[in-house]
Each structure stands twice: as structure tokens, then as C-alpha cells.
Write a structure and sequence with these properties.
Glutaredoxin; 186 residues; alpha+beta; 14% strand; 9 helices; four-stranded mixed β-sheet
Length: 186
């Protein structure tokens, strides 16, 4: 997959919603976005990133899991100029969606972490462990969450922490990369 091309064509958070979300969907995303709270330690960690990282999220404005997680990605990206988060609609980029299939399914959100020169470093999605644990505990059935009712504070905090952990993991990979250390002389 040519991630550099897809990333270059992808939208920032607000642009993605303007192009792909209805006003009702935008309101749902905004409600979650307004509730995302990073801890001071998380903000400091993210703000201290040294390597630029490109984060590509394949999503759908209609998707409940995307409603509950993509605003977290946007908030994380706001913490550092070294983090560039972009979004594409899964239906507008079927090749990207196919490349990111999980368990033989087109699950979203699906995230590809890229280096500054768009080399793939990792993938993550469709739900964090905290979300899966909550789903198992609730036994809500096979339907995806609608995004109409945002997750509770404890679940939101746990999911945010898991996403921050993934960003940190990739940042450490980039920081320790022999190739990038040679390039940057550090």
C-alpha cells in the first residue's frame, strides 16, 4: 500500500468531518471531542516527542466506534507539532481499508502509524482493550455502538490511555531507529 499517497490526500480532523459527516454526526463527534481529557502527564509526554510521526486513520463518520475514538486521536495530535493525524473515509479509500482488514473484516477505526518519511511503523484498531472489556461485560450483542451515547468517564480515560500508549510506543520506535538516528545525527 502506498501510505504516503493516502496520507497526503487525507484530511485533518475538522476537514474530515466537514466532508464526510452529517450535522447530526458532527454533533456526536463534537460531544466526544469535548469530553476527551488528557492528564497533565499525558500532555507532557506527547509534547516531548522528538520525531515527527504521521498517523493515518481510516474511519467512517457514521461509525459508533469512530465517534468514540477518533476525537481522542485528534486531541492527542493537538499536543505536539511532531504528531500529524489525518483521516480518510473508508469508502473513499477501499484499497486502504482492504490493506487494514482485521480478522477478515473491514473494521474501523484502523490506524497506521508512519515515520516522517511515511514508512509504516505499526497498526492499531478497531477497538482498544478497554472497549472490548466493556463490550464483553455489557454483552450488548453483535451490533456496533451507535455513538449516540458517549462512553462513561472511566472508559473514556482507559481508552485514551491506551491510545496514548500506542503513540508512545511508535515514538520510541522512531526515536530508537538506527536509520532515523543516523539521519538526524542523534
Amino acid at each position: 500500500m502506498q501510505w504516503a499517497r493516502v496520507f497526503a490526500e487525507a484530511f485533518g480532523y475538522r476537514e474530515f468531518l466537514q466532508h464526510h459527516a452529517t450535522p447530526e454526526q458532527q454533533a456526536r463527534w463534537q460531544a466526544v471531542y469535548d469530553r476527551v481529557a488528557l492528564t497533565p502527564a499525558q500532555r507532557t509526554l506527547l509534547g516531548g516527542f522528538v520525531r515527527e510521526m504521521h498517523v493515518l486513520c481510516v474511519a467512517g463518520a457514521w461509525c459508533g466506534d469512530c465517534v468514540n475514538q477518533c476525537p481522542i486521536l485528534a486531541r492527542i495530535g493537538e499536543q505536539s507539532p511532531r504528531i500529524v493525524v489525518r483521516f480518510v473515509d473508508r469508502d473513499a479509500y477501499p484499497d486502504a481499508q482492504t490493506a487494514l482488514m482485521m480478522n477478515a473484516g473491514r473494521r474501523i477505526p484502523a490506524v497506521v502509524f508512519l515515520s516522517e518519511d511515511d514508512e509504516e511503523c505499526g497498526r492499531y484498531g478497531d477497538r482498544t482493550l478497554a472497549f472490548y472489556r466493556q463490550m464483553a461485560a455489557d454483552r450488548l450483542g453483535p451490533a456496533c455502538p451507535t455513538g449516540i451515547v458517549p462512553p462513561g468517564e472511566a472508559l473514556m480515560s482507559a481508552v485514551t490511555a491506551e491510545w496514548v500508549d500506542q503513540f508512545e510506543r511508535i515514538q520510541l520506535m522512531l526515536r530508537l531507529s538506527k536509520r532515523l538516528r543516523a539521519k538526524h545525527g542523534d
